[in-house]
Amino acid sequence: MSQARQVADQGGREIVITGVNIGDFGHTTGETFYELVQALDRVDGISRYRISSIEPNLLTKDIIDFCAQSRAFMPHFHIPLQSGSDEVLRLMHRRYDTAFFHDRIDYIKKVMPDAFIGVDVIVGTRGETDELFEEAYRFCADIDVSQYHVFSYSERPGTAALRIPHQVDEKVKHQRSQRLIALSEEKHRSFYTKYMGSIRPSLMEHARHGQAVRGFTDNYIRVELPRFENEAPDNRIINLRLGQFNADGSALTAERIEE
Description:
With about 260 residues, the chain is of the alpha/beta class. It is about 30% helix and about 25% strand. The chain has a five-stranded parallel beta sheet. A five-stranded mixed barrel has the order 6-7-8-10-9.
């Protein structure tokens, strides 16, 4: 809480909550992550929070419901899946299966239809046969998420995973990674396209004089405004009408809606 207030005092408008197993926050102090979310929402001066990298089994429906009606928590989550194959998840000793993950994604979309959902996946883990990868790929293609962060498995000395017999060739890992990256780009572009023409509140970043101004909408769409010759809306939340993709496809062009 004191860190959040310090950020606000220094002019910060947005905080991304991140770390290792953030959903386990408070286990040593008798607090919960849910209580933290509720408390942070009351900090004056912080306009936006985003929850990053929280395990699906720790992202409870209570947390999702609170974020859906909160003052400052944005419709944006980043959730590690790691694999869309139940057999591979079992080999990883994950505490959820694909049915649970699917249900959690569906629930987010039910109460926060505009939510951006980023997902981590790992390809080429020991035990990931061709058949299991195809199963994982189909699952990833089916769920309603906005982007995948794709990682290739690498060996770690001394880990229990080394006892799993099937090892994936590096070339095969690369091929699988490229397929999931292509799927991610398709989903990401589709998510952006869905909001073309809509009006979204956007927090603008600092830009050098004479350059285009960029920022993010509440639901994590990268936006780009034309150059500002006079005063740029740095660190301000403004309403923008979203347009088409910019030249390199990294953002949507936008125009300011006068308030």
